[in-house]
Amino acid sequence: QVQLVESGGGLVQPGGSLRLSCAASRILIGTYSMYDKGWYRQAPGKQRELVATITSGDMTNYADSVKGRFTISRDNAKKMVYLQMNSLKPEDTAVYYCSVLLGTLEYWGQGTQVTVSS
Prior knowledge:
Blueprint: E1 3-7, E2 10-12, E3 18-25, H1 29-32, E4 36-42, E5 49-54, E6 60-62, E7 70-75, E8 80-85, E9 94-102, E10 105-108, E11 112-116
Parallel strand pairs: 2-11
Antiparallel strand pairs: 1-3, 3-8, 4-5, 4-9, 5-6, 7-8, 9-10, 9-11
C-alpha cells in the first residue's frame, strides 16, 4: 500500500507563503513517476476541492482561486510532490491533502493544516 505523508503546513499571516511537501513510500520510483499527483483541500464545513494537479507528463491544472499564487511541482527521483503557496489569503485556510492517481489506483495522505490568519 502506497503511503503519502504531507508536511509544511502551519499558521501564516495573509500575504505570506508556505511550501507543502508530500513524501511517498512503499512505491518504486518508476511506478511513482507514472502517477498523476494532486493537492486538494477541505475547509471546515465544506467539501474537499481540487487545488492543483500535475500529470505524469507534467501538465498542470489549477483551481481558479489559486491560479497565479500556487505552484505544483514534483521530484520523481525523490518521490515527492510540492505545493508552493504564495500570497496566501484567509480563505486558503484548510486541511491540505496530497493524492496520487494511476487508473483506478488512488492514494491519499492524512493531510496537513494550513491556517492563514493575522
